[in-house]
Amino acid sequence: MVALAALLVLLAAGGAVLWRGRAAAARRAAMLRPCLGLLAEPAEGRDGAGFPTLDGRFEGLAVAVRLIPEAVAFRRLPQLWLSVSVHAATGQPATLDVLRRVAGAEFYAPADDLPRRLPAPEGLPGDAYLRGTRQAEHLLAHLAPHLAQLLADPRVKEVLVTPRGVRIVAQLCEGERGAYLLLRESRFALTEIDPATLVPHLARAAALARHVTREGGAHAPGTRAAA
Hints:
Number of strands: 9
Number of helices: 4
Helix content: 25-40%
Oligomer: single chain
Largest sheet: 9 strands, antiparallel
């Protein structure tokens, strides 16, 4: 009888854990649902980690919204990043990636795969880390004032410009301290994204894409990289 009772307790506990896991996954999958009305032709999806994805059009441009949970970094709480990409030919032959506060956990950023390290021009934060392809110096010279405006917001983590589009990555929230300290897990208290949080990043990405395209003029795309 004791063994049977213990088995029933284990089954009940396992069922409760499974139920909580499914409920958490369902909440996570719906995090971007309040923002559907911001985009024309919105299309929801889910990435491999169970986080929601959102694609559509903003101000006539094709955009992709992603949530990026950062792996645990040394002596820092886990981060949840908001990634907003605009998919549009920029007319630029170069790729430029600008990162701030590099911690070695930026798996989503192509910076380390780009061949050239570039000095940060005046006006950019001192913690900015810039890399690019051939001709990225010319692209940086054109974009420096615009980049300075974007990076004035301390939440902005990355600005990426490629021949096929642009991307801005910004901080959404930090992980829960207790889960990190005790279990080294990435748990985020944020349950849904307020449209008022997403709108400024969509507007910035759209403005950057248009600015880059104007600067690109008639340049034919050469270097390939994904935004």
